[in-house]
Task: structure prediction
Amino acid sequence: MVAIGSHYRVTGTTVINTAGRTCNFDYGLGLLGNGEYWSAIRPAGTPVALLTSQPLLDRFPEVRHALGQPQVVIVPDGEPGKSLNVVTSVYERLADTRFPRTGIIVGMGGGAVTDLAGFVAATWKRGARLVLVPTTLTGQVDAAIGGKNGVNLTDGKNLVGTIFQPERVIADRAVLGTLPDRDFRAGLAEIIKCGFVGDPVILDLVDSLPAGGPVGDDLLRELVDRGVRVKVGLVEQDEQDHGPRRYLNYGHTLGQAVEAATGYREYNHGEAVGIGMLFAASVAAIVQGARELPERTRRYLTRVGLPTRLSATVDFERIWTLMGQDKKAGSVGREFVLCLRPGVVRLTSMPDRAVAREAFRFVAGGERGTGRD
Ligand SMILES: NC(=O)c1ccc[n+]([C@@H]2O[C@H](COP(=O)([O-])OP(=O)(O)OC[C@H]3O[C@@H](n4cnc5c(N)ncnc54)[C@H](O)[C@@H]3O)[C@@H](O)[C@H]2O)c1
Result:
């Protein structure tokens, strides 16, 4: 592992162009704790608020120094931070210091913290400057890219949010070295999703892994590069999420319902999305005859050590209700992302109840659900 802060190396920058903004996505090693790197992107004297959780501040204290003693705003770690109560408390902290609109809010953490920071920046004085520092694999390949932010309500995930582009995203590979294995594997779920919706080569690479084994550095870099390319491509085509960007919701209809049904405790986001992709594959098998897809999906999830069965505590009726609350529901019927085969994706309406129940039975380990008699 490379220590953060001593030497740094920007190994690449992707410029993400959307109608509203240009975002520089820097990836490299040792960036976060390096004052020289930060001063190149942040003019001296610019007020900075570092929004992060206590465990992450403790883990990466160098960042605070490299930023020149910013205002530090601590938020709850992980999913509990994504709430309107927390948003209000952050506004109050910013108001205490009269934090200006021209200041930079730096959101450092996993997808939960960067989603929260994005929402705060989008709404603070109608839009402050935003830099995101994703510290999880999910954040570096997905959550910090594309400007979507949001907080949860008890009725469901991400029901309140905006699309607001950061001016920079800093993905420092060195920080991934401390990521717990379970969170690392959750990030691989989002990369597999990118394989289904845009780059099937990702799935071939995943297939080359020993089940549940380690992922070598070179392979990881290729998986990340490919995943990021899929996400950036869809965001650039459709920033406002009216069309193809919604392919990225693949696996999320059931996945987000599972997260909400289990109180955001039993499954992390990537695990839930993985099971959601299995559900979607089963729906494709039942309604479109994509018979190989469920087993293929299960194989990819197994390769990267992700769960492939929903626990018996999750009840179909609750999930069915929660899927109806999905924010992607439109006035003409709830939307569902269907993949017919890797790289071939459609936006369709929700499967009917009988199909959903059958597919649910498959992910709950009751088998069938593959369209076979
Ligand atoms: N906005 C988007 O487009 C988008 C896309 C995907 C996911 N998301 C959101 O992202 C969230 C999930 O993100 P996540 O998987 O990063 O989980 P997370 O943000 O909940 O973080 C998981 C855990 O990892 C810890 N952690 C973070 N970085 C670490 C590091 N380098 N070393 C050790 N521990 C570290 C955190 O403290 C936390 O406990 C969900 O809320 C999801 O809705 C948003």
In short: The radius of gyration is 20 Å. The chain has two domains: 9-179, 189-228+236-366.
